[in-house]
Amino acid sequence: MLAVVAGDAVLPLLPGETIVIVAAVLAANGRLNIALVVIAAAAGALAGDNAAYAIGRSGLRRVADRLLSSDKNRTRQDWARDQLKRHGVWIIVVARFIPGGRTATTYVAGTVGMPWKQRFLPADALACVVWAAYAAALGYFGGAAFENNLWLPMLIGAGVSALVGAAVSCCGGRCCRPAAAEGPTRA
Question: Rounded distance, CA 105 to CA 113, Å?
Fold first, then answer.
């Protein structure tokens, strides 16, 4: 589970959240330990997010400097850097709940040079623990409620996860959106 969750943070094609929910359903039925499910999910998310940050910090930073050298793109990078300075903790926490958004945010945080030890790591640790507890709670309580039918809570958990991700995405966009004059120009 840890490896799938870590891989999902780097390449969001893997079913990280689904694996956590399924493991928590199994924990509710006595087949796994729920505390270990949460710990493994949080550790995998933290490892994956930090790997994506490191990729952004090393390889993508050079690529971005080379390919995005126009004034318009530099303005966009400056805007992203400024948003992470002003709202970094909330952006990292909210993005953890958005499939694909977490990957893009962690890559960008590394690319624009968000300080790792002082800002990124503490925010990401908080985000990973909250996310792991949330995903595990969905599966655990759903698994306990639907003890005799394992498929129904899995389907409900996946649906609720999608709805929460969409809601957080909408809220996160409103919270972090700059005023029209501050934002980068779009082409």
Answer: 12
| pLDDT tens per residue, range 159-175 | 887 887 777 667 655 54
State the chain's mean pLDDT as an integer: 82
Residue 181, domain member (yes or no)? no
Decide: helix, strand or coil at residue 85. Answer: helix
Q: Could you tell me the CA-to-CA distances from 50 to 20, 63, 121, 122 in Å, in that order?
A: 19, 19, 8, 11
Ramachandran quadrant class, 98 (left: phi over 0; alpha: psi -120 to 50; beta: rest): beta
- Whether 154 is in a domain gets the answer yes
17 found inside a domain: yes
CA dihedral in degrees (6, 122, 75, 65; nearest 10)?
-50
Domain tally, the chain: 1
Q: Virtual CA dihedral for 44, 47, 48, 52, nearest 10 degrees? A: 170
Give a yes or no: residue 184 inside a domain.
no
